[in-house]
Design goal:
Number of domains: 1
Order of helices and strands: HEEEEEEE
Number of strands: 7
Radius of gyration: 17 Å
Structural class: alpha+beta
Shape: flat
Oligomer: single chain
Length: 109
């Protein structure tokens, strides 16, 4: 019983530490600049701006504190790699108040 409780406590501590690390990453992405998307970031979805798909390694963010990096993946199973949202990190709250409003983009539907 004690061993189980200790294991659960250790898992909770590890989860909290991981969440803090992701929040730091997300805040850095907002501070360094990111392309704001309309709605929520969705893992595995490409992002379109001005009719063109954003390239791999672009940093994207939303109005809810989520950030991501576009990574190559075959999301539509056509044998070609496309840049899709991955490496998501969450600030733990809304985006920083001092964050400038970048141009909006949309997801492919």
């Amino acid at each position: 019983m004690i061993a189980t409780n200790n294991l659960k406590r250790n898992e909770q501590i590890a989860t909290q530490e991981y969440s803090r690390e992701l929040a730091e990453i997300a805040n850095q992405r907002y501070q360094n600049g990111c392309i704001r998307v309309e709605g929520y970031l969705q893992s595995g979805k490409p992002v379109i701006k001005d009719g063109k798909q954003l390239p791999a390694n672009a940093i994207v963010c939303d109005n809810f504190g989520n950030t991501g990096v576009l990574i190559p993946a075959d999301f539509d199973e056509d044998g070609r790699l496309n840049a899709v949202v991955g490496k998501i990190a969450y600030t733990g709250s809304a985006p920083p108040a001092n964050h400038e409003e970048p141009a909006y983009v949309r997801y492919v539907k």
